[in-house]
Each structure stands twice: as structure tokens, then as C-alpha cells.
Amino acid sequence: EVQLVESGGGLVQPGGSLRLSCAASGFDFDDYALTWVRQAPGKGLEWVSTIYGYSRYTFYADSVKGRFTASTDNARNTLYLEMNSLKPEDTAVYYCAADPESYMDFGTVHDYWGQGTQVTVSS
Known about the structure:
Elements: E1 3-7, E2 10-12, E3 18-25, E4 32-39, E5 45-52, E6 58-60, E7 68-73, E8 78-83, E9 92-100, E10 112-113, E11 117-121
Parallel strand pairs: 2-11
Antiparallel strand pairs: 1-3, 3-8, 4-5, 4-9, 5-6, 7-8, 9-10, 9-11
């Protein structure tokens, strides 16, 4: 059974940093694409980043490019999202998601989802 569990969310001031983690089980990271998706209050889902577990190729939404970095520790089956220079508009529930490595949509439809972790950027 595939399970994804996010952690690391919280309250941070504008300009600050936060690192999210997603602990995964039930599949091999080398065979999957791992994605971060967020949902701001009152808005729809927004794709943030996808990283391929085997090649480590990583893709980012324009809204976070240069500020966020996705990475994986395949030995620990853990996905990370390092978020720097945070803005109030980054406030959202952040979800990790997983798909077989053939995934290429870079969107908000995914096979497996975590429960989400809240990130609030406010002074």
C-alpha cells in the first residue's frame, strides 16, 4: 500500500525559509515521479514541482522557480521541498503526490496523495 505523509509545515515570516518533508512507503522511489502541489485558501490546486526519483530531473512552476528546491533521499524514501524567500502568497496546504515514472503532465491529477501540511507566511 502506497502511503505519503507530509511534515514540516508551520508559520513563517515573509522572507523566511521552511523545509517540508514527505515520507513515503509502499513503492520504490527509483520508479516514480514525486510531485508537490499546493492549495491556497479559497483557490484551486496548483502544481509546484515534480522530481523524477531515478534521474532526479526536477521541474518547477514559474511562481516558485529560484526560491524552492525539491530533492529526494531515495535510501530513506523521503521527498523534500526547501522553500526560501517565502511570500504571503505561498500560504497554502502543501501536498506531496506520486505517480509512475511515465508521468509527464505537471498538473494536479495524481495517483497517490498525502494528507497535506499547512504553510502560513505572515508577519
